[in-house]
């Protein structure tokens, strides 16, 4: 491993015998964003408990304030409670300054939906990662409502949007499986008269639909083809403020779950994890690979299914992950690739084209990072193939994170089992979705520490 003047934000992870204990992961990122946005459009006071206080969601909170909503955080005996006083549908006001969405694609794309059908002009930007990500996938359907967008060549941030006060409702079939695109169109449709319809050939996470129903909107969801859905929203409803309890994020839970599965003698209980079937593809996949994952206390809270997860370490066997499962685990492929590198046999992950346009090009990042750690990995078109030997790879590399939280966390998990430590060059992006990740993992038995610190015996 390189020892040349590492950044103070670089972390290393050393091998451990196992992880044990009980934990709660931070709130669901997708649900947190939506609770602030719908709270800002509802009439009355929306109280949100369990909100993810990661940088991405804080960017949404700041933007909703800039658009005229009142958003406050209170501390109730150590529990954070967020209150949002909404402006009513169509009631957002023109922001005086640029909306900076930081690293968050969800904030940027969903907010563009809201801005598209408010008669005002806004300018949006983001960090270097977000400024590289494609935005035409939302500006194209949002233009159909009557909004106008200006950006540089390629349709990336920064961009300006001139929303329309005379929106026409839209019927739109999404060309990519994307909950962000679906949600942007539905949110724009909130301030368009008549029915807005989104058709998706593969169903994606349905938190927007569930929460719209929870806030009193009238919408119907019907099957479309073998794996798709047709969602129709009646525009200009009166959204009523409603309490939101945010479950733990299954995408964040994935890191301690895989860490426990691959480290020797582990036993974890994760309390209160969201189990929405459209988010649960990783868990289905790990079970097919032989993982010991038990769902306890299955229940429904605030319109979302939730359970406690009990995990014991197990040997994993490689499988083929079908392309039509990708949408239900789109954020989990980096950590699945780590699990696959520690499994016996070949894991083939099919249909991962969308991974190239996430916070970084995750297909390349995982292929190159795992190879640098000694694993055998190939990319064939949009498929990632990892050859497991039944033993963890060697490790001993420093991985470039490129502002991608999930790449950072995935490689820190890998370091928990490799012979040589694994480091990441800049772990600060982890705060976008999982503040306190290293501390929480260390409390369970991991050894993650600044790369600048010398190794403990
Ligand atoms: C999200 C949808 C997914 C996911 C992202 C959150 C959401 O993006 O990758 O982390 O909250 O709607 P796409 O819809 O672009 O696949």
From TrEMBL:
Main function: Catalyzes the transfer of the enolpyruvyl moiety of phosphoenolpyruvate (PEP) to the 5-hydroxyl of shikimate-3-phosphate (S3P) to produce enolpyruvyl shikimate-3-phosphate and inorganic phosphate.
UniProt subcellular location: Cytoplasm
Native species: Caenispirillum bisanense
All residue ranges annotated as the Enolpyruvate transferase domain in the record: 17-439
Gene Ontology molecular function: 3-phosphoshikimate 1-carboxyvinyltransferase activity
Pfam families reported in the protein's UniProt record: EPSP_synthase (PF00275)
Active site: 331 (proton acceptor)
Binding site for phosphoenolpyruvate: 29, 105, 133, 180, 362, 406
SUPFAM superfamilies (UniProt xref): EPT/RTPC-like
Protein name according to UniProt: 3-phosphoshikimate 1-carboxyvinyltransferase
Entry keywords, A to Z: Amino-acid biosynthesis, Aromatic amino acid biosynthesis, Cytoplasm, Transferase
Gene3D superfamilies in the record: Enolpyruvate transferase domain
Recorded metabolic or biological pathway in which this protein acts: Metabolic intermediate biosynthesis; chorismate biosynthesis; chorismate from D-erythrose 4-phosphate and phosphoenolpyruvate: step 6/7
Assembly notes: Monomer.
